[in-house]
Design a protein that fits this description.
- The structure is a homodimer of 242-residue chains.
- Chain A is α/β, with parallel strands linked by helices.
- Chain A contains eleven helices and five strands.
- The longest helix of chain A is centred in the middle third of the chain and has 18 residues.
- Chain A is globular.
- The model of chain A has no long low-confidence stretch (mean pLDDT 95).
- At the A-B interface, helix 2, strand 2 and helix 11 of A face helix 2, strand 2 and helix 11 of B.
Chain lengths: 242, 242
């Protein structure tokens, strides 16, 4: 049974198998070592994610994943009173929902590596341009998300991770260390470009390497083809397979 | 339990999650509908693949995949007496091995959609350039694979598919319909470029659509976010989840 790594999150997880996507890159690097399982739900906030927990991570499973990334907050941080209000979740509830998710995952498997990922920064100008491209002059005049408010959710996410002793990636901070992050990492002010996906990929790999899940140190599932004697192939498969 | 689609094959399957990869694109299109499980083994021929069958597709499993792509032949078709001789499998044995794989899969699940994919065409000049880039003047002078011989394996693959009543994709023929296929679809004369991956992706999607596995017609696992009433989220989840 090959170990599983689950990617649980919103659209940024759901879209992680598009060109240059961080989910696809993880699948590639963990080839023949671990299966990457994507559970991304576009538009979802943590409040709605709670409804999925028992279905995606059913307690009592005999084969829980070895690691799970939890990547919500971009929708929770949508502002109340603006066009994406329906997705808004107050900061304290967001933190409490993250706690519930982590508690559930720990109950699911006490040894699972849990990685909380903060929402990425928001490029408000990019969001506005994107809205205009969709709706023209009818586009909202006031931003539906701001970078500052999303930053408070990112901090809240990191706080919860520290409080509960799990790993975290502060994507909001990390991305803003690079000049021009607004266009380099974000395609519409919120979702990720290939470069933005690259940042998530590198940060997730760092965390997994720092645990006991470094792809380069994990064994292949079956013999490397160079280890197979063409005149006696059985031999290479005896140890691992028979 | 989400349906699974297994990609079983050699390096062309193993590398299908790199940029533009056909495995990644399938994962994206089947998002929230089916899990794509990659079982690609670089350098493997069908003779060695047989050793894996009982492990990857253990008879008696209660949750067999709904579909499996079987994509071998590029290594079987390596020429005897040349530098990749160790991977060579005679044509008749290749066909017989494919039959064994199909029989096993049918025993595993009589309803599984089985898609045999032929090896892609070989760009002998591209192979030679690639060998020179690795080994300089020490590179082999005679090709280790030829397009003509690989074509006989492609025909053999299609014949087995017809004989056993399963689907097939003649990638060898399909790719050669496009002018400039040598560089457009192949990166080193054998493995696929992003465009080459695109061809495999399109052909696999066509076959799955023609069966009962069209992604656009499959239901989402959980409610689309627009269907969730923010004031009464329970309601949307009641039918699918509770």
């Amino acid at each position: 049974m090959r170990p599983e790594i689950v990617l649980f999150g919103d659209s940024i997880t759901d879209q992680s198998f598009r060109h240059g996507g961080w989910g696809a890159s993880l699948t590639d690097i963990y080839s023949r070592k671990a299966d990457i399982v994507v559970r991304g739900y576009g538009g979802y906030n943590t409040r709605w994610a709670l409804f999925l927990l028992n279905h995606i991570f059913p307690l009592g499973s005999t084969t829980p994943p070895v690691a799970t990334t939890v990547f919500f907050g971009a929708n929770d941080a949508a502002l109340s009173g603006r066009t994406s209000e329906r997705q808004h979740v107050p900061l304290e509830e967001y933190k409490e929902n993250l706690r519930k998710i982590v508690h559930h995952l720990k109950e699911f498997s006490p040894t699972m590596i849990i990685v909380l990922i903060t929402p990425p920064p928001v490029d408000e100008e990019g969001r506005q341009e994107y809205a205009k491209s969709l709706y023209g002059e009818k586009a909202m005049k006031l931003p539906e998300r701001t970078n500052e408010v999303t930053g408070t959710y990112a901090n809240g996410c990191v706080e919860v991770a520290k409080e509960l002793g799990v790993d975290s990636i502060n994507l909001w901070s990390k991305m803003q260390e690079t000049q021009g992050w607004q266009k380099k990492f974000l395609s519409d002010g919120l979702h990720l470009t290939a470069d933005g996906n690259g940042v998530v990929y590198e940060e997730v790999v760092k965390v997994l390497n720092g645990a006991w899940l470094s792809a380069s140190e994990m064994p292949l599932d079956f013999p490397h083809h160079s280890q197979i004697d063409p005149h006696n192939p059985e031999k290479a498969f005896q140890q691992t397979c028979l």
